[in-house]
């Protein structure tokens, strides 16, 4: 796992914690191969988040996490024991901190949730339909609970 810091935020978990969240999501998903997953996590400011969101999702605003999955066709050709490039996450640090405050969550809980959420997207989960959203949210909630955190979808 590579952690890139394009902006400084006080609440950013350390590299080992980031790796632990990604591994927890991969393990719980049942979709990860028995290989070392490679993920790049880039912590961005609101302008970079907005630029990426506008370019790739046609939404002209910053967002908390963007997931850029590796091409599944490329992954299938790798031997089962090789390092597997799963994809990249761009997480908007200032937005994570602001959302945590607004939602009455600890920054640690919100970082963990967004790392799990983004990793699940890299593993092929989505929330375009109600059924997909339900499946993804149940898995996120279970992962968070397993690590001692409350349901990330509970409104306070």
Describe this structure in words.
The protein has a single domain, classed as 3-Layer(aba) Sandwich (Collagenase (Catalytic Domain)). Strands 1-2-4-3 form a four-stranded mixed beta sheet. It contains six helices and four strands; from the N terminus they run E-H-E-H-E-H-E-H-H-H. The N and C termini lie far apart (33 Å). It is α/β, with parallel strands linked by helices and 156 residues long. Helix content is 49%, strand content 17%.
Topology:
Elements: E1 2-5, H1 15-29, E2 37-44, H2 46-57, E3 65-69, H3 72-76, E4 84-92, H4 93-103, H5 107-122, H6 130-146
Parallel strand pairs: 1-2, 2-4
Antiparallel strand pairs: 3-4
Helix pairs in contact: 1-5, 4-5, 5-6
List its salient traits.
globular; 4-stranded mixed sheet; Collagenase (Catalytic Domain); alpha/beta; about 160 residues; single chain
Question: What is this structure, in a nutshell?
Answer:
With 156 residues, this protein is an alpha/beta fold. It has helices spanning 15-29, 46-57, 72-76, 93-103, 107-122, 130-146; strands at 2-5, 37-44, 65-69, 84-92.
Count every helix, treating DSSP H or I runs of 4 or more residues as helices. 6
The helix-and-strand class reads alpha/beta
The CATH architecture classification is: 3-Layer(aba) Sandwich
End-to-end separation: 33 Å
Mean pLDDT: 91
> Can you identify the CATH superfamily?
Metalloproteases ("zincins"), catalytic domain
* Basic shape: globular
CATH topology: Collagenase (Catalytic Domain)
**Overall tally of structural domains:** 1
- How large is the share of residues in beta strands? 15-25%
- Give the CATH class: Alpha Beta
**Radius of gyration, in angstroms, nearest whole number:** 15 Å
Largest sheet: 4 strands, mixed
Could you give the order of the helices and strands?
EHEHEHEHHH
Number of strands: 4
